[in-house]
Amino acid sequence: MTPVSKVLQAMGIPHREFIHQGQVRSLEQAAEERGQVPGQVVRSIVFRLSAGEYLMVLAAGPGQISWPRLREYLGQSRTSMASDEEVLTATGYRIGTVSPVGTATRLRVLADRGVFVHEEISMGAGQPNSGIILKSADLRRALPGLEVGEFISK
Predict the structure, then answer these.
(1) Least confident of 46-50, 117-121, 122-126
(2) Looking at the DSSP assignment, which residues form a beta bridge with residue 124?
(3) What is the C-alpha separation between 78 and 99, in angstroms, rounded?
(4) Tens digits of residue pLDDT in 101-113
(5) Whole-angstrom Cα distance, residue 1 to residue 63?
(6) Spatial contact of 46 and 86, defined as CB atoms under 8 Å apart
């Protein structure tokens, strides 16, 4: 059982694990193998706000975060992507496996509205070459402090 599946199971959130047969090399490959379109794959992106302070933004598919929108929402003039080491410290997960569920530290989580366009989505499972498939409504239930907004470039 993947780390994220264990947490979701303990929370009573319905989901299923998907283990890829080989190495996942792209978002498009992950989506295809999971029987989804790229917009159903949710990426968990970690940003550094200040020393030791991190934030996660959830984005659907290949959409790119709009730095101006993110900074305006946060009321900050500076934000930066967290380094690989910072992502591991803040979440307990390595890049490519990150999930907003079961993080090592309590993180503020923002989600672009596009994450909830599809009824079913998938996300990192906390280990390589695997994913968690669940209903987008169940992701909301798993993340009670979730903030939803417009964070993707148009």
Answers:
(1) 46-50
(2) 131
(3) 24
(4) 999 999 999 999 9
(5) 29
(6) yes
At 146 the three-state DSSP class reads coil
Q: Is the pTM of this model over 0.90?
A: yes
Closest CA to 122 of 64, 38, 47, 57: 38
pLDDT digits (tens, 9 = 90+) for 60-74: 999 999 999 999 999
Q: How is domain 3-149 classified at the CATH fold level?
A: YbaK protein (3.90.960)
CB 97 within 8 A of CB 111: no
| β partners of residue 130 | 19
Which sequence spans correspond to the domains of the chain? Answer: 3-149
Provide the strand spans (E) within the chain: 16-19, 42-50, 53-60, 80-81, 108-112, 120-124, 130-135, 147-149
In this prediction, what percent of the chain has a pLDDT beyond 70? 100
Instruction: Find, among 108, 126, 117, the residue nearest to 50 by Cα.
Output: 108
